[in-house]
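User: Structure tokens for both sequences below?

Assistant:
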Amino acid sequence: MKAAYINETGPPEVIIYGDLPEPKPSGSKVLVRVKAVSVNPIDTYLRSGTVKMDLPKPFIVGCDLAGVVEAVGPDVTRFEPGDRVWGSNQGLLGRQGTFAEYACVDECWLYATPPKVKDEQAAAIALVGITAHLGLVTHAQLQRRETILIHGASGGVGSTVLQIAKILGARVIATVGGRDRVEAALNLGADHVIDYTTQSLETALRKIAPGGVNVWWETSREPDFDQVVAGLAPRGRMILMAGRSARPPFPVGPFYVKGCSIHGFVMFSAHPDEQRDAADDLADWLASGRLKPRIDRIMPLADTAIAHRMQEEHTIGKSGKVAGKIVLCP
């Protein structure tokens, strides 16, 4: 089978697109004929060696996938050949990735794809959707009519958080960089949009939410905690899901006097049952059209190294050239 893999960590150029043996399902594993995958920042961190994990060699990159069940192991109970499935949480913690024509995935990380949902949509929503759901429902416990600010609402995670927050009945303030992204955030349902390239976030937020916001979702790798704490309402909650190496100053006094809390989490450490609960909601919202993954572009799997370079330049280099998910198809 064709696959995008590495033999050693390094820049995008270490990715090889070539032939590897087709995996065989055993135990509770499902062999999926991959139809679509999507790129996530964590994929680039693992490939570059920035995030250290023990990786099999050769190591197929990628977390997300959508496709069709080709075969199942003897202990599989939830799927059978011909079923359409989607999932995430691959390509880490010793598991092989998904950027190949076939992927062997434990059934606990797979979910049924609704009939009218395209594989590209399912792959694009996988990691970002489960992440957004875990952050909003499990950690922030966002309530109807609460106000949430999403700092960086035009990316894959941010645009998904925006949509799910609206589905949950919250008032959404989105921050984005650029006029075209203002329009995109409004189209996704944001109640207010702040363009931080032309507006002062602090000034605009004081006008929109003078009492502060109940939840602040931070997507940047280097949060400005003075800005965040000033913008939170009493008992406000901050969600952190980026910035592994960040060590910014923190305003301890204003934070604890307000009774605020910070919730940091990574999606791939959540229990399979928690992720399945999130996936069930995501599937329903995708099927009903209430949730629409923001796809920046669709590329062939052979261009994995190019896609990694684009994602890295956007995430680390802050190029601003990627708005949504990069999806690849074998």
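Moving on to the next sequence.
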Amino acid sequence: MTTAILITEAFPLGGLTEEAFVAPEIAALVSEFDRVIVIPLVDRGVPKSGMPANVEVARDVIDATEWRHKWLRPLYHPLSAVSPYLLAAATVEGALKRVIRHYGLTPASTVVESFWLDYPTIALANLRRKHGFRFVARAHRYDILIDKAPRRRGKAIAASDGVYAVSEAGAEALRERFPGVASRIFTAFLGVPAALRMAAHSPEGSCSLRILTVAQATVRKRPGLCFDMAEALAVARPDWRVEWTLIGDGPELEPLRQRAAAGTRSNLTVNLLGAMPHHAVMDYYTTHEIDWFMLLSTSEGLPVSILEAMSYGVPVIATDAGGVSEAVDDETGLLLPVDVEKEELVRGLVPYLDSRYRYNALCEGAAKVVRERFDASRLRADFAKRLKTIIEE
């Protein structure tokens, strides 16, 4: 019996991140392996709906006493007590050993995937060295940039059967940080599912501009700057109705609410919808008119939120951070420098407000790029097959 173990952040898959990132991964693994064991690092309760028959959830990490009470970890793992990061890795390693014993797993029929290039990969490297279990890891953004235990992380990459960044820029950044193991580092896009139908846009000649942002309201995502840009567009086009909508929660949301409550220009509407389930966000694209998607982050991997918008035929306004330029260019949207000024965005957007032909070409280009390069059904299936070949070899 072939088995894939997936170590992921949280389960069940609630919220934007896990539902958009991890659910398609599980679906792809299910089609290739006889059994899929999901090991969550954060407890989100129990699934509301049934899982496929060959998917099981192992709670060995989240139920471990030393995991629930961090102060106990040095007692359980004294050799790793010098570093909280290594203590977390040691705790995961102990849980993995319990899973292996419980399910009677063998290296010949098992492969492990860590969805993040973080402390679990150090645990997996130890498991490889001691017991021969093979593993891979994906890499996104923070897990590429973190500067914890760099020597051990380099050794973990060397011990792996591959580390797969979700963007070409991320893969190159990892190779620069770990040049000695560059041959172990690859790119594997996450992609997004194909949209069943395109989003509606403001009618031609309506002088309406509707902008959507889907992101956590954090300093890195800069929702305040998105507010600024919407306001600048309202100033530049006083005869237009500008509407900016934010879907997402976080520490920057309350200041935005206070700012919106204080009043805006008469031709600017701000909608702060807070967090929404992933399926509700996807429904939003087909039940509301959306003209542009805007994300002005200071750093990124290759945001799934951008790809989702493009899949619905919505062009993107984004900063050139991380791997964003691998999806956004002058055929799919407006790519701006990270230190963008308001005037720069207004100047770049105005030609598309004045030419429906140019705007429609962007909409078509956005959807086409997703179909051709970022189709999740193909990308995730290919990745699952790649994992299967590791044990078949």
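User: Anything stand out in the second?

Assistant: Residues 94 and 317 are 45 Å apart (CA to CA).
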